[in-house]
Amino acid sequence: MSHWFHRNPLKATGDVKFEMKMVASDSQALKICSDLKQARKRLLELLPDANHEISVVEPALMLYLAVLRGLIHPPEEEGTSWSKLRHAVRFKWTNSMLGNTPETHYDAVFELVCVLQNAGFWYFKHATKVAAQENVNMEEAKEVHRSLRRGAGLLQCAHNDWVQHLLEQPLPGSDADPRVYTAYLNQATAEAQEVTIARAVELKHNAGLISALSHETSKMFTTAADSLASLDQKIFAHWMNYLKLKAAFYMSYAHNYSGENLLNQDKCGDGIRALQEAKKSYEAANAMCKEYSGTKGPGTKAKPDRHLFFRRIAPIISRTLEKCERENGMIYHQKVPYDAPELEIRATYGLASPEEYCLPPSAPLWSSTTYAAFDLTKNMSEDKAANSKAAQKVEGDLPTVKEAAIHQKDGEHKNDSGCSIM
After folding, report:
1. CATH class of segment(s) 206-351
2. What is the CATH number that goes with domain 1-176+353-422?
3. What is the percentage of the chain residues whose pLDDT exceeds 70?
4. Among 16, 86, 245, 390, fewest CB within 10 Å belongs to which?
5. Is this structure's pTM higher than 0.85?
């Protein structure tokens, strides 16, 4: 679905030479330095282009992570938790929402966290690319779903397994900030469920199931939006408004299909009230679309209100509400309650979750002999002034990542759901 998803910028990074000192010239150790540099360069060449296939990006990611792990964990025979080389190389990375000023750390764990995050962002953007095609078949819809779950899994791995080992507390608004992480994780998971909902609508599944799935999806978007509320709104309001409009939109879906389900059970009065609530939520989503498009901030400009999937629900709500009111006046004569019927929270089938991500083992080159060839004392003799905050400020900002364009068409899809992802 073109222009359906909001996406934030990729993280930028500086070049790394991996010039680590050695006790003696060791061919394997020299090869490790070369492999680190080349594998990193190759991965960074791929990530700005979401048009690449997963089969191209994933091996490049695995290769670099396998070599990088040797800077984090030593060979098993060493008997220590952290490699002596963990703090031997300086890494610079920006954050997706905080502009071009980088964080700089002598820490391979910091590098690992940033690489996992940026790879996760690539998967989100790749899902956008696949969804934006004119005709998306079943396998491609599965790829969208899988990409969103894999991206969420990469972020989850970084946050749950590695952020706690960083040398400093995450900066407010950084990608390692728990609030930003929560927003990304819930957004990706909710977007994966959007694929399931569109498929359920297309296949005319039980209205109660669609309502429950939509309700869960709305709650995830709400959780994502709420997690950003305490951050600088000059930066985060644009993204937060996207999450709010999606939450309102799926709440309208939830109440609409709840109303249909109640009508099928001859609970016409309750059905009328549910559909009234659906109309109210849809109007709120429409208002949020205008607020989102008028708010400045990092990231793309999604256009959900232009989509048939977005627009189709309004006449459905109106028609079903008119039918309920007509039948209630002629047949049921049921009282319309003041409060909307509670939405069911029984959805288990179709709920998405992050795909668990496990790091590859260290590259075979990282043997005890190779590890011993690196001399930490020589490496630490570098001018420590280079790591001072003043020195970092003099170095200046990093250029924005030039991301390849994703071609997005505005054509409508002639199916029941109005969605290209089925």
Report:
1. mainly alpha
2. 1.25.40.280
3. 90
4. 390
5. yes
